[in-house]
Amino acid sequence: MPGCQFLQIPLRCAFQADYFDGVSKKSAKIAAMIETFRGGSFDAHYLGYFECFNRGLYYEAHDVLEELWLQDRKGPSGNFYKGLIQFAGAFVLMQKHNAAHPRLRPAARLLGLARENLRAYPEVFERLRVTEVLAAIDRWIGELEKGDFEVNPLKTDSAPRLEPPGE
């Protein structure tokens, strides 16, 4: 994907917070990850979310967008960002699922919350096809239910992808 080389930044740069006076290490890491997305039509956090999500870095996708959501929690995009964060969070739970610590029912609940937050938005919002995300949510809930919350449908070859908004 052109212009999406943020994951090629040396890890030591992502963790050096000393030049971010008063900012947490988490914020410094996120700032390094989204640097290549600055200056576009959308906030770099929003674009970084799609890059992380599509690489299967669901926890990082959650973190990247959370910083933007915190600024707009009560604004017109607040629940939109919250729904996308919940969508990524469900896949974090699926990645962490194992027999000793089942995470598939909570993943389905989080997908349901994402659906509730996103369904209030128009078919296309911030150039994202919300209807496609809602269809994906329904598909993943269906897969979890089909396996009676015992079979993890998340595999490398079935990992979801989100079409990033065009510039």
Describe the structure.
The protein is an all-alpha fold. The chain has one domain. 54% of the residues lie in helices and 2% in strands. The chain has a two-stranded antiparallel sheet with strand order 1-2. Strand 1 and strand 2 form a beta hairpin. Helix 3 packs antiparallel against helix 4 and helix 4 packs antiparallel against helix 5. The longest helix has 19 residues. The N terminus is likely disordered.
Features:
167 residues; mainly alpha; 54% helix; 2% strand
Radius of gyration: 16 Å
Distance between the termini: 13 Å
Which spans have pLDDT < 50 for at least 5 consecutive residues?
A: 1-24
How would you state the average pLDDT, rounded?
82
> What best-fitting shape do the alpha-carbon axes yield?
globular
Main beta sheet, described?
2 strands, antiparallel
Biggest sheet strand line-up: 1-2
Number of strands: 2
Provide the β-strand percentage band.
Answer: under 5%
What count of structural domains? 1
Series of H and E elements: HHHHHHEEH
State the helix count.
Answer: 7
Structural class, please? mainly alpha
Chain oligomer state? single chain
Task: Give the helix proportion (percent range).
Answer: 40-55%
Sequence-ordered SSE layout with sheet pairings:
Elements: H1 11-15, H2 25-34, H3 44-54, H4 58-71, H5 78-96, H6 104-118, E1 124-125, E2 128-129, H7 130-146
Antiparallel strand pairs: 1-2
Helix pairs in contact: 2-4, 3-4, 4-5, 5-6, 6-7
Short description:
The protein has seven helices and two strands, in the order H-H-H-H-H-H-E-E-H.
